[in-house]
Design brief:
EC 3.1.13.1; hydrolase; 4 domains; 5-stranded antiparallel beta sheet; RNase_II/R; elongated; 14 helices; 498 residues; RNase_II_barrel; Exoribonuclease II
Length: 498
Amino acid sequence: MAVRVMNGSAFFRCCAASTPLATFRCCLHQRNSVQFHSSSRFSTSRRLHYRLIYFGYGEFTIRKHSTQSLVDMVVEELESLRKRGRVRASNKLELKSSEELLENKSGKPALQKGLLLEFRKDSDRVLLAVAQKPDGKKNWMVYDQNGVMTSIKPQQITFIVPGIKDFDHTEIANFVQKAQDNLDPSLLEFAWIELLEKNKSTTVEELAEMIFGSSDPLESYSAHLLLSRDDLYFTALETKGPYSVYGPRPSVQVEELTQRKCAKEAAERELEEFVDLLKSARGMPLHQKPPKSAWMSEEKNQKKIECLQAYAIDDCRSEDEKRTAGMILKAMGLAKTASAAVNLLIDIGYFPVHVNLDLLKLNIRTDYSEEILTAAERILSESPDVDEVDRKDLTHLKVYAIDVDEADELDDAMSATRLQDGRIKVWIHVADPTRLVRPGSMIDKEAMKRGTSVFLPTATYPMFPEKLAMEAMSLKQGEHCKAVTVSVVLHPDGARMK
C-alpha cells in the first residue's frame, strides 16, 4: 500500500488485487469544543474530527485524538478490503500463461470498419486512427487523428483499442486527450509491485482493470500508453500482431534502469544548460564575449568545448566525443559539420576570427593558462640574478643581431673585434633564460611541453609567456641584458685557431 499526503489530506492507494488504485481518501475536519476550567475562564481547545471515505464501499466517521490511531484503523480496514478483494479477483481472473493470453487476444475478429487502432506513422510518430475500408488484399484505409486518410499495412498496427466497433473519427482528438489525462506513471509502479509479488504477467486490459477499475476502451488505451512509454517496470514477454503480454522486471533490473534514467536526465539538463550558455555568448558583442579561459573553468563545460573543437578539426578520438558534439550542434539548430562547429566556436569568442586550424590539428599551443601567466609575473618581479657576481661587463662591445625589423624576440647576437696581431675575436651572445627559470619549475615544465617557439607569417607563439620571452629573455637594443657569451679567435683569413 502506498500513502501520499497532499494539503492536509491523505490519499491511500491499495494494491490492485483488492480494488482500483487511487480510491481511498481520508479528509481531516477540525471542530472547536468549549471546556470550562477552574479559573472561570472559557478556553477553546481543538479536537480533530476524522472522516474516512472509501468510494464505492460506503462511508463511516471516526472521532479520535491521535492521527496515529486514524492511520492504524485505516491500515486495518485496507487490509480487510484487500483480503476480500483477493477473493473477488481470484474468482474473476483465472491465471493463464502468456501463450494462452495471446491466443485469446489473437483469436479476436480481424480488422473491420469502425475499429479504433494505433499505428506507427514513422520512426518517431504513433497515431490513432479509425479503420475505413480494405485497400487491396492486406492493407487498410484509415482516418487518422489529424483527419488524414491514409493506407496502412498490418505490421504498422501497434494496438487495437478493445470494445469499440464503430468509432467516429472526429472524436479521436477528444479520446486522446482523455487518455492523456489518465496517465499517472506512479500507478504503473504500484501495479509492478503487486504483479512482482505474485510473479504474474498481465495484458493491457487486465492492467486497466487493476489500476483504473475498468477495462473499458478509454481505460484500456490509457493502460496501453503507460506500458508503451514505460522503460522501467515492465517488458513485453510475447507479442503477436497488435497484442502483447507484459511481465514485471526484476527489482535489481528496475533499480539499474532507474539509475540510468536519472543519469540520462541529468546529462540532458547539463546539455541544455550548456546550450543556453552558447546562445548567450553568441549573442554578445565581441568585446563582451567570455574569454577562452572562462569555458575551461568548469570541467563539464570544458569537456563539451573540447568535443566541439575536436569535431571542428576532425580529430574526435571516440564515438562519444563525436556524439556529444553532434548533439550540441543539433540543439543549436546547426548542421553536423566541421565548418558549423568552427563557426560556432568563433561566434562565442572561443576561436579568433582568423583561427589557424593547422595549429590545432598539430596540437601547437597558442596561449597560456592563468596559472602560468601569474607565475611569469611573479618571476619578473621577484627573481634576483644569482649569477650577478660572476657576470662580466661587455657593454663596450658593439652587438649585432640579424633579424627582421618587426622582431620582438631577439635571443642571440654577435660582436667582432680585431686584435693587434691581425686576428679576429668573435663574441656570440645568447639570452640567458636560466637566470629566471629554475629547472623543474612550472614555467620550465611548460616550456618543455612546447619544445620550441613557433614563427608563422601571421603570428609568433613563443615557448615562454610573452612578457618573459619578449622582454626579460630578449636582447633588447639600448638596454643592459643578461646573456651567456662565448668567444672564438679566428685567423685573418677566417680559419679557426686551434
